[in-house]
Amino acid sequence: MVLPNAPLEMLAEGFRWLEGPVWFADLQCLLFSDIPNDRIMRWTASGGVSVFRAPSWFANGHARDREGRLIGCLHGERAIVRTELDGTLTTLVDGFRGKRLNSPNDVVVKSDGTLWFTDPPYGIQSDYEGGRRASELPTNLYRFDPRDGSLAVVGDEFEGPNGLCFSPDEKRLYVTETGLQFDPESKRCIRVFDVGEAGASLGNGRDFYKVSPGDADGIRCDEDGNVWASAGDGVHCIAPDGTLLGKIKVPSAVSNLCFGDRHYSRLFLCASQTLYAIWVNRRGAQRP
Ligand code: MG
How far is the CA of 58 from the centre of ligand 1 (A)? Predict the structure, then answer.
């Protein structure tokens, strides 16, 4: 999984809390969120780090849709937004049945163009990552279809749904459960679901893997179906049968990660206040 002579590289530091990395191969850049600083950052190999968008309305998780547009989860607006090709922002979802979302955390785009996102309350429980406000909805997992504007709950068994990724064949969806923010006894693990035949529902939810130390937040699959999970001690690489294959040790807790760069075989790590990268011997799945 790892290469014997590939070092863990520190790309930038001095942030408050990093999240939401997404690779733009066409621009050869990484975008990522610095949530408490209310900004989205950009990293390039030639130019280093710069501010991409501030304020970001406390953006957290990111993905690209099938047309390459940036899809973002905003704690501040409690919404899923799309950045259009002309730079304007379109709010896609900000409520369900007349009530406000909590604080969308992470989003993935399925090959049919639908957006699947988690809605825990972490961004509305303090002023640090968005602003304290009342929760109006359960902590659901949603599927949004931009073709007809429909929004459906596809998972309601979570206390704190967080990161998510499809297996390469999209027959499985992995979702991290990070529990109640101020209750260390609440459930924390990676869950896995079977995607229904029509590709629009989930079933057979079960525990997949328990990260320790710390929690799994953001997760990504490689093209062989292995799950690369953020953890308190770095990154855990887990086979589809739940076997731990190996770890990348990182000096600070990793919150999220994504594959990028040449052949999507470089792993970018949002690790608390620091951005790292490491080349690995696998390629990421679900390239935009
Ligand atoms: Mg997250």
Answer: 13
